[in-house]
């Protein structure tokens, strides 16, 4: 019986991963491809350039927010992102994939020291087409982030675990944020003063040098 299982690896590290194991019979029909789908909340994201350098994941397609620099409160796409990993036709089973992802900086809190993040369980299935190859599964009716396909395709989903994946992310304290902001302002102000002082000293030295040169010429 086909089964898709997932778990989070290195959950407390800076570089967590989602490990997905798929047990099923291979479909040798060349008009069908196995797609593994990850629906990610806005609190986490993947780096498409990193994933494309990991050939073991298959062909990668990402829709949604994947800006690497934005904190959680600054992102515009509140629906998060969706990742498709298309596997080669000659894939053998059981199949194991490790999807690396990254955590966004959470909003500082007065009370919390950590924030739980819930991830929908990844799922997989066979995407089949009749004439034109579908670049991703026909899931536009289920997820608004996914563009519609201009031609007909079908998606047969494999059974998968329903339990969501969870991890805990550290959250900064509001008072710490104030201290960081104040410290940053003071550091910038001191650097500005130091630069201004250095420029002033340099100008004064130049004036003295020019004055000495004029006196020597007059003598």
From TrEMBL:
<dbReference type="InterPro" id="IPR013233">
    <property type="entry name" value="PIG-X/PBN1"/>
</dbReference>
<dbReference type="GO" id="GO:0005789">
    <property type="term" value="C:endoplasmic reticulum membrane"/>
</dbReference>
<protein>
    <recommendedName>
        <fullName>Protein PBN1</fullName>
    </recommendedName>
</protein>
<dbReference type="InterPro" id="IPR040039">
    <property type="entry name" value="PIGX"/>
</dbReference>
<dbReference type="GO" id="GO:0006506">
    <property type="term" value="P:GPI anchor biosynthetic process"/>
</dbReference>
<keyword id="KW-0256">Endoplasmic reticulum</keyword>
<keyword id="KW-0325">Glycoprotein</keyword>
<comment type="pathway">
    <text>Glycolipid biosynthesis; glycosylphosphatidylinositol-anchor biosynthesis.</text>
</comment>
<comment type="function">
    <text>Required for proper folding and/or the stability of a subset of proteins in the endoplasmic reticulum. Component of glycosylphosphatidylinositol-mannosyltransferase 1 which transfers the first of the 4 mannoses in the GPI-anchor precursors during GPI-anchor biosynthesis. Probably acts by stabilizing the mannosyltransferase GPI14.</text>
</comment>
<keyword id="KW-0812">Transmembrane</keyword>
<feature type="transmembrane region" description="Helical">
    <location>
        <begin position="177"/>
        <end position="196"/>
    </location>
</feature>
<keyword id="KW-0337">GPI-anchor biosynthesis</keyword>
<keyword id="KW-0472">Membrane</keyword>
<keyword id="KW-1133">Transmembrane helix</keyword>
<dbReference type="Pfam" id="PF08320">
    <property type="entry name" value="PIG-X"/>
</dbReference>
<comment type="similarity">
    <text>Belongs to the PIGX family.</text>
</comment>
